[in-house]
Structure formats: structure tokens, C-alpha cells
């Protein structure tokens, strides 16, 4: 499944964002991603709980690699809740690995 297909489901006028998020199962919708995958997750995320994210990443076929960065004390939006730590990961890991 491609991003436009998944995104169109997320932004459907027939569903609210909360309902769509609750029903969205990336384990089935996105079984493979062919580019590097970097997941930044807050340890207190209730929208995408730690066990669910770990399960998805374990099942995800990501031939270019996959990495999980967990931010203790942050919720669903670690970039907003822990900006210094998130930016450090983006600069020192993501940029280094994708722009080398």
C-alpha cells in the first residue's frame, strides 16, 4: 500500500481523525516499506502504545533498515514534547544515515 492510499484513508471526510486512528492497523496496511524507517516514539504514547509499535516494527519488512527511538516522558508527539532530543536524533542519526 502506498502513502497516498493510506493518507487518503486518514483524511477521509467520512471519518474523524480519532476514529480513523483507533481503527488504523499499520501491521496490515503497511507490511513493507522500501526506504529507511525511523520511528520516534514517546514512552507515554497512548495513541500508538509501545507494545503496538514494537509489534509493528518486528513484523515490518524494511529492507533498507528500521530503527526505533523512544523518548522517555514524551507522549504521541516527541518532536514537540522533547524537541532537543528529537532534533539530535534527526541530525546525528537520520541525516548521517540518509545523506551519507
Short summary:
The chain has helices spanning 3-10, 17-23, 26-29, 50-59, 78-81, 83-98; strands spanning 37-42, 66-71. The protein is an alpha+beta fold and 100 residues long. It is flat and about 35 Å long.
Which descriptors apply to this entry?
alpha+beta; 2 strands; two-stranded parallel ribbon; Rossmann fold; 2 domains
**CATH architecture call of the largest domain:** 3-Layer(aba) Sandwich
Shape: flat
CATH level 1 name of the largest domain:
Alpha Beta
The strands making up the biggest β-sheet line up spatially as: 1-2
What's the end-to-end separation, in Å?
A: 28 Å
Q: Helicity, in percent?
A: 40-55%
Described by its quaternary structure, the protein is: single chain
Strand content: 5-15%
Enumerate how many helices there are, as a single number.
6
Sketch the major β-sheet.
Answer: 2 strands, parallel
Total count of strands: 2
What structural class do the secondary elements suggest? alpha+beta
- What string gives the helices and strands in order? HHHEHEHH
| Uncertain spans | 13-18
The CATH topology assignment of the largest domain is: Rossmann fold
Rg, Cα atoms, Å: 14 Å
Mean pLDDT comes to 82
Number of domains: 2
Question: Could you please describe the fold and organization of this structure?
Answer:
The protein is built from six helices and two strands. The protein is flat and about 35 Å long. The chain has 100 residues and is of the alpha+beta class. The longest helix is centred in the last third of the chain and has 16 residues. Helix 4 links the parallel strand 1 and strand 2. A two-stranded parallel sheet has the order 1-2.
